[in-house]
Amino acid sequence: MHRHVLSVLVENQSGVLSRVSGLFSRRGYNIDSLSVGETEDPKVSRMTIVVRGDDQILEQIKKQLNKLIDVIKIVELDPEQSVFRELALIKVKTDLSTRASVIEIVSIFRANIVDVSNDSLTVEMTGDEQKIEAFINLMNAYGIAEIVRTGLTAIERGNKVLNNTNKDEEV
C-alpha cells in the first residue's frame, strides 16, 4: 500500500473536521496523519491528510470527500513537487552526565530546547519525518519520557497556489 498526501480545502465551519473524519471511519479507512489550519482566507481551512492504500482506495476516498458539501477542493501532493514538514515536541530524560551530549545533538539537528528541568529537556523540532525519526532514534538511548507530533503538513513547491477557485493559480 502506498502513502498518499491529500491537501483538502474546506469551509472553515464547525463540524467539518468531524464530517471528514467520520467519512473515513464509516468506510473503514485509517488516517495516518491529519493537520488542519485556517488559510490566508479566514473562511477556508486547509487539511493535510495522509492515508495509505492503493490507487483504487485513493480514488474512492477522493470521490467520497468530494460528496461532502463543505469540501472545496482536493489535490494529491506529489512528494517530489512538495515540501512536507512536521513539528514534534520530545521530552528527553537527562542528568548531569548526559545533558551536554543531548544539547550537542539538539544543536546538530537544528532543534530548540523549549523547557529545562532537573531531569529532562523538552526539544522542539521541525522537519521532514525522516529527520524527526532519526532524532528520536538517537534520543532513545537517553530515554524518551514523552513525544507529541503534529502530523504532516505540506505545500506544493514553486509558484503553484492551491486556492478555493476552480483554477489553481501561479504566483
Q: How would you explain this protein's 3D organization?
A:
The protein is α+β, with helices and mostly antiparallel strands and 171 residues long. The chain has two domains: 2-77, Alpha-Beta Plaits (2-Layer Sandwich), CATH 3.30.70.260; 83-153, ACT-like. Chain A, domain 2 (Alpha-Beta Plaits). The chain is built from four helices and eleven strands. The strands form three sheets. Strands 5, 6, 7, 8 and 9 form a five-stranded antiparallel β-sheet that branches. The protein has a four-stranded antiparallel β-sheet with strand order 2-3-1-4, covered by helices on one side. The protein has a two-stranded antiparallel ribbon with strand order 10-11.
> How many domains, as an integer?
2
CATH arch. level architecture of the largest domain? 2-Layer Sandwich
Reported for the largest beta sheet, the result is: 5 strands, antiparallel
Shape: elongated
In what range is the share of β-strand residues? 35-45%
The structural class is alpha+beta
H/E element order: EHEEHEEHEEHEEEE
N- to C-terminal separation? Answer: 35 Å
Enumerate the spans where pLDDT stays under 50 for 5 or more consecutive residues.
none
Number of helices: 4
The first-level CATH class name of the largest domain: Alpha Beta
Rg estimate, integer Å: 19 Å
Please tally the β strands and state the result. Answer: 11
Helix content: 25-40%
Summarize model confidence as the mean pLDDT: 92
According to CATH, the homologous superfamily of the largest domain is ACT domain
Stated plainly, the CATH topology of the largest domain is called Alpha-Beta Plaits
